[in-house]
Design a protein that fits this description.
Number of domains: 1
Number of strands: 8
Helix content: 10-25%
Radius of gyration: 16 Å
CATH superfamily: Peptidase S8/S53 domain
Length: about 270
């Protein structure tokens, strides 16, 4: 399959054999492994409860200028936003349906920042086949791809400004302004790559961590805004639970960048 950023170099890190067997200790170790091996974007398509080790791993990622993207969780199984999506600094991702609006499975919370397609998504499975599934796990993979594309085009942008660029250019699809359904709106990759978005106050351009001869990128949905000036919203960030495993098939690239997209994986069969 060819996904959002086919030129991205993906570092898959298994943190559990199944959703039931996941542990916060493994997740924290997986994040630190990604950081130590040069990842510039970390995708976390799973959710859990608050944990000091995971919080420390998120803080370490942010200190290293790594973009952390995590799913908010799936209703009705998840009633509130999960972790690490709920941690400050993590880009918390919800899901949209075929109609382009927030999907009913996507958890609503004030910390949600952006939504991306997450219903009836086709991707690869661990056994070499393909499957159809829905969940914020899929949406998170798409947004991680978009983050990689932004890092590819703007290699000197800080992690905070990468998140800000994605949220500032999102299409507002709910109540005017930021809301608890999709935060700043639905991901618009074309605008994220082309719009004039000022840097956040107090941030400096920074080169993301790189890995030798690595290409990276990723992202979905597009609209044309040639040179639109978009005011920067406040950026916030966060894992995602879903009826699907982490969708590596959706994270692929279009442009080159110096960095890795790390995908933390739960090995689980997706259902049709």
């Amino acid at each position: 399959m060819q996904g959002i950023a086919p030129s991205a170099k993906i570092l898959p890190i298994r943190v559990a054999q199944s959703a039931e067997g996941k542990s916060t200790d493994a997740l924290a170790k997986g994040m630190n492994f990604a950081i130590d091996h040069g990842a510039s974007v970390i995708n976390i398509s799973l959710v859990g409860g608050p944990d000091f080790d995971v919080e420390d791993a998120v803080a370490r990622a942010l200190e290293r200028n790594v973009v952390v993207v995590a799913g908010v969780g799936n209703a009705p199984h998840d009633l509130v936003i999960g972790y690490p999506a709920a941690f400050d600094g993590v880009l918390a991702v919800g899901a949209t349906g075929r109609d382009g609006k927030r999907a009913a499975i996507s958890v609503k919370d004030a910390k949600v920042q952006i939504c991306a397609p997450g219903v009836d998504m086709i991707s690869t499975t661990p056994n070499g086949g393909y499957s159809l599934a829905s969940g914020t796990s899929d949406s998170t993979a798409i947004v991680s791809g978009a983050a990689a594309l932004v890092r590819a085009k703007f290699p000197d942008l800080s992690a905070k400004d990468v998140i800000n660029r994605l949220t500032a250019t999102a299409d507002d699809i709910g109540p005017p302004g930021r809301d608890a359904e999709c935060g700043f709106g639905r991901l618009n990759v074309l605008k994220a790559l082309t719009a004039d978005v000022p840097l956040l106050e107090g941030t400096a351009q920074s080169t993301p961590p790189s890995s030798a001869s690595t290409t990276a990128s990723t992202a979905p949905g597009y609209i044309d805004p040639a040179a639109t000036t978009v005011p920067p919203p406040q950026a916030e960030p966060e894992p995602a639970s879903s009826s699907t495993p982490l969708v590596l098939g959706l994270v692929a690239g279009l442009v080159v960048a110096g960095g890795l997209v790390a995908a933390l994986v739960i090995r689980r069969r997706r259902s049709f």
